[in-house]
Amino acid sequence: MMSQNLFEINCALDYEVTGPSDFLFNIEVAQTQQQKALSSYYSASNAIDLKSFKANDLPNRFIRFSALTGHVAVRYTAQVLLTHYWAEPHDLHEHPIAELPKEILPFLLPSRYCESDKLFYFANTHFGAQTRGYERVESICRWVYENICFMPGASNATTSATDTLTSRVGVCRDFAHLTIALLRALNIPARFVAGYDYGADPALGPTDFHAYVEAFVGGRWFIFDSTRLCPRNGLVRIGTGFDAADVAFATIFGPVQFVGMKLDIQPFDKTGVPVTLLDDANLAISTSASNDVNDVLGGVTMDAPRMASNGNYAITGCTAAKTAHG
Predict the structure, then answer these.
(1) Parallel, antiparallel, or unpaired for β 284-286 and 48-54?
(2) Which secondary structure element, helix H or strand E, spans residue 2, and what is its range?
C-alpha cells in the first residue's frame, strides 16, 4: 500500500562570527525515488564562496562557505512530495547475509558511534533467541525506548552507543546509535537517518532536527524510531549514513557562536490540503527501497567528507546552544 504527502519546510539558522570561519551544512532534503523536492532553495548572508555538493553513494547534499566577522543567517525552504510504502510486519523477514545485496553489506559493520562489535554479547543475550524478523527489530526499539531516558543536554558530540547503554540517558541521536549498534550486532543491516520531523510534543521544545533508524528487512529499508517522539510518516529525509558522523547538520570550524534556530514543517495531502498525520503502529513503513541510496538527480558529484567532531561541533539531532526534542 502506498500513500503520499506534501511537506513545506522552513529552516533558519543564525550565528555570530568573530574571526575567519568555515561552515558545512547538511540541511537540504534528499532527492530519492520516493522523496521528490518540488522546490529547494538555500541562502547564507555574509557568506564567501557559497557552493553545494553531494555525496557519491548516499543522497546527502552539503552546503559550504566561509565567513569573516559578523552575523551569518542561513535560510532554507523546500516543498517535498514524499511517498510512503506500508507493509504488514509479519511479512518482513530478516535476510541471510549471503542473500543481502552488496550495497547493504557495509551496514552490518561497526562504525564510529555504533560499536556493534562491543555489544555482541549484550545483543545476543537479550534478543538472540527471539523470532527473527520485523518484530525482533521492533522489540529492540521498544527496549531502547523503555530503558533509555530522553534527556536533552545529557550527551555530546563524542557520545557513542556504548556510552548511552552505560549512562541510560540521551537524545534522539543516542537512541538511534544504540538501536543501530544492537541491530548490527545481530547481523541486521541498519543505518542512521537525519531528517526534519513533524508532530513531536511541543513540551519537549521547538521543532528540531531528528535522528531515526532504518533497518533492512523484507527486501527494503523500513523506518524505526526508538524515541517514539513523532509519527513515522512525518519524517522527511535530509541525510543517510552509517552514523551521525555522516550526516551532522552543521560542522563549523572557527570562532562562531550559535545564536538561534527556527524550524517549521507542515504536512498537506497530495492536493495541497493541510492534514494532521496519523501513524498506524500496526503497519511497517518505508521510504527507501534497497537500491534507493543514490541521489536521483545525477550530475557531477564530489565525495562528501566523513564528518568528525573536530570543529566547533558536529552533531545531529540537537543544536550546540540549545537541545530540543531531537
Answers:
(1) unpaired
(2) strand 2-25
Rounded (5°) CA angle 260-177-288: 90
Q: What is the C-alpha to C-alpha distance for residues 317 and 159, in angstroms, rounded to an integer?
A: 13
Query: Helix or strand or coil: residue 310?
Result: coil
Contact 211, 173 (CB under 8 A): yes
**Residue-wise pLDDT tens digits, 163-199:** 999 999 999 999 999 999 999 999 999 999 999 988 7
Look at residues 26, 42, 40 and name the one whose alpha carbon lies nearest to residue 74.
42
Backbone dihedral angles phi then psi of residue 9, each to the nearest 5 degrees: -125, 135
3-state DSSP of 156-217: CCCCCHHHHHHHCEECHHHHHHHHHHHHHHCCCCEEEEEEEECCCCHHHCCCCEEEEEEEEE
Residue 322 CA to residue 326 CA, distance in Å, equals 11
Answer whether 136's CB lies under 8 Å from 126's CB.
Answer: no
Beta carbons of 27 and 42 less than 8 angstroms apart: yes
Task: Tell me if 167 sits within 8 A of 154, measured CB to CB.
Answer: yes
Q: Are strands 48-54 and 256-269 parallel, antiparallel or unpaired?
A: unpaired
Q: How long, in residues, is the chain?
A: 326
* Contact present, 190 and 107 (Cβ < 8 Å): yes
Torsion 81-262-223-26 (CA) sign = positive
List Cβ neighbours of 53 (8 Å cut-off, separation of 6 or more): 61, 62, 64, 301, 302, 304
In the DSSP assignment, the letter for residue 227 is T
What are the backbone dihedrals phi and psi of residue 47, each rounded to the nearest 5 degrees, phi first?
Answer: -100, 140
Residue with cell 568528525: 308
DSSP state of 298: -
Can you tell me the distance from the alpha carbon of 48 to that of 28, in angstroms, rounded to the nearest whole number? Answer: 19
Predicted confidence (pLDDT) per residue in 53-93, tens digit = 987 777 789 999 999 999 999 999 999 999 999 999 999 99
